[in-house]
Amino acid sequence: MKNKTKGLIAGVAGIALLTGGSTFALWTASSTVAGGTITNGNLAIAAVGTPGWKDVSTDRADRGTAGHDISLATWRMVPGDVAEGTYGFQVALEGDNLVANVGVDTTVGTLPTGMSVTYDVVSATGTVLANDIALGTDSAVRFAAPRAGQAAGAPANAAPTIVVDRTALATVNPTSNMTVVLTARFDAGTAATTSASATTALGSLVVNVNQVRTGTDFVVPPVVP
Predict the structure, then answer these.
(1) List of residues 6+ apart from 42 with CB closer than 8 A
(2) Beta-bridge partners for 128
(3) Three-class SS of residue 205?
(4) Is 3 left (phi over 0), alpha (psi -120 to 50) or beta?
(5) 124 Cβ contact partners less than 8 Å away, ≥ 6 residues apart
(6) How far is the C-alpha of 216 from the C-alpha of 159, rounded, in Å?
(7) Which residues, listed in sequence order, are joined to residue 185 by a DSSP beta bridge?
(8) Does residue 51 have a cis peptide bond before it, meaning omega lies within 30 degrees of 0?
(9) What's the chain's Rg over C-alpha atoms?
(10) Distance from C-alpha of 66 to C-alpha of 71, rounded to nearest angstrom
(11) How many CA atoms does the CB half-sphere of 66 hold within 13 Å?
(12) By the 8 A CB rule, do 92 and 168 touch?
């Protein structure tokens, strides 16, 4: 009788293990598919060429269409003069949703009375995209990368937008696709000898290309609860 009881208890314990104390191996199947590789885009800028300055004062009889080359080391500015400095830059953008604003800054000491300095942004084809922007202020000029990898959709690219089909900076024979022009003006109405022998010290030119997700290409994303 004792042996029968022991067997019954062992059988009940085995059923308990099968039903609640362990996991059944039921049917299962699997398949494998390649995950793919996500590649990030690129945003880069570099100065190209040698900056050059010109006297572009509009009232000079011999001005011509381009003005005259000058050397800042020896040229002396007087009221009524306008001088332009041209700086070339190479910009690379790669990214289907990549849009960037252009800003220019430089360290400028206290300007002499009658002096002002602004900047323009000019495209590779010579089109002025931004005119007389204060240093330290972002312009409305935008760069956009082409949407080469998207099956649908098209960027608005509203003016002034430059579509840059360059994925990396060229290291051999680089050419500029953007020009920044600094314009220094000495007001012709500056009285007497005000600001005579004064100097306008321009520091290193800093051109920023800042990615944005605003403007005609983007909307405010919905709030996800």
Answers:
(1) 92, 93, 94, 95, 167, 168
(2) 122
(3) strand
(4) alpha
(5) 162, 176, 177, 178, 179
(6) 10
(7) 82, 116
(8) no
(9) 34
(10) 15
(11) 8
(12) yes
Handedness of CA 166, 169, 172, 173 (dihedral sign): positive
Q: E strands within the chain?
A: 42-55, 68-70, 82-94, 99-108, 115-123, 128-134, 138-144, 161-163, 178-186, 202-212
The helix (run of H) or strand (run of E) holding residue 16 is helix 2-16
Instruction: Check if the beta carbon of residue 122 is closer than 8 Å to that of residue 161.
Output: no
Q: What is the pLDDT of residues 102-157, one digit of tens each?
A: 888 877 778 899 999 999 999 888 889 899 998 878 888 888 888 777 776 666 77
**CB 145, CB 41: distance < 8 Å:** yes
The reply to whether the predicted model has a pTM over 0.70 is: yes
Mean pLDDT, 10 residues at a time, the chain of 225 residues: 55 52 79 92 92 94 88 95 95 90 81 92 89 85 82 71 85 89 94 91 86 84 78
How, if at all, do strands 138-144 and 161-163 pair? parallel
- CA 162, distance to chain mean position in Å, is 11
| Residues 6+ away with beta carbon under 8 Å from 190 | 79, 113, 114
